[in-house]
Write a structure and sequence with these properties.
The structure is a single chain. By secondary structure, the chain is α/β, with parallel strands linked by helices. It contains 10 helices and 12 strands.
Length: about 280
């Protein structure tokens, strides 16, 4: 069987954990494949798609191509169509199909951390990451709320309308991030606050963190943000975003070749990614 070829595209591509993660996943599954990164400028995407990308067996996509690649594809998975975003492409019999694995990566990471999406669920922020998480929570029939800055209230309101338009039964609201009161059963940070190199920052105050039963932080660098550390110190379940990064890659492999993985192997890969990141940044 000949070697299969995969890549991740973006611009600028810089350092990315994708080659490290996907090579390990291919090894774990016993799949003969290589994986590289390709820096493709926006204006070159269409040409590179025809000359380079179509020769691959599949590829992943990061900023700024997640929407721009869609007109080039032959088909979209239902979830990619709903989100209007693609981060994984698979070729089968010459047909290119686009998928988004971020939503399933989020759910798999939450489940692996033993965090139940029940009770009062709050998402900090209303950007792209928050949108992904919000739709998955709404699809599961769980009520939730966004907590945002004053200047983002308009954006949050539009996002709530978009969610209820696509999922009429969704129960979603928003409020100010500096006015969180009461207990929060599941707090999800979808803001960049606390990301390297600003590891000392927290998106909310210690008193609010102290009223959280569980915390999930989408940030993966550092492995444990100040938010995650504080939540753990309070005795709450808390998980960082590295697991989400790895699990969304796992979903891509299931699409590409049907591979299945043991949770213990994925837990080990998450830990190894953390070590790899220390030397890369």
């Amino acid at each position: 069987m000949s070697t299969k070829h995969y890549a991740v595209i973006g611009h600028p591509i810089g350092h990315t954990m994708s080659p490290f993660i996907h090579k390990r996943l291919f090894d774990l599954a016993g799949v003969d494949a290589d994986y590289t990164k390709l820096d493709i400028a926006p204006e070159a995407l269409a040409a590179e798609y025809e000359t380079t990308l179509r020769r691959l067996d599949g590829f992943n996509i990061t900023i700024p191509h997640k929407q721009a690649v869609i007109p080039l594809l032959d088909a979209l998975d239902d979830k990619a169509r709903m989100y209007g975003s693609v981060n994984t492409v698979s070729f089968e019999n010459g047909k290119a199909t686009g998928y988004t694995t971020d939503p399933d990566g989020f759910i798999r990471a939450i489940e692996a951390a033993g965090i139940a999406l029940d009770g009062r669920i709050m998402i900090l922020g209303c950007g792209g990451v928050a949108r992904t998480m919000a739709y998955e929570i709404a699809l599961r029939g769980k009520p939730f709320e966004f907590a945002v800055r004053q200047e983002d209230c308009g954006k949050a309101g539009l996002l709530c309308l978009d969610i209820t338009r696509k999922i009429p039964e969704a129960q979603v609201s928003f409020g100010l991030i500096n006015q969180i009161i009461g207990t929060v059963d599941v707090l999800i940070n979808a803001t960049p606050v606390g990301m390297y190199p600003n590891e000392g920052e927290q998106p909310i105050h210690n008193c609010a963190i102290g009223r959280c039963g569980a915390v999930f932080d989408a940030i993966y660098n550092p492995l444990e943000t100040a938010l995650v550390k504080r939540a753990k110190a309070n005795g709450a379940k808390a998980e960082g975003g590295m697991s989400m990064l790895v699990w969304q890659a796992v979903v891509a492999h299931q699409i590409w070749d049907g591979s299945r993985y043991d949770k213990q192997d994925i837990d080990r890969l998450v830990a190894d990614c953390a070590e790899e990141m220390k030397t890369a940044f």
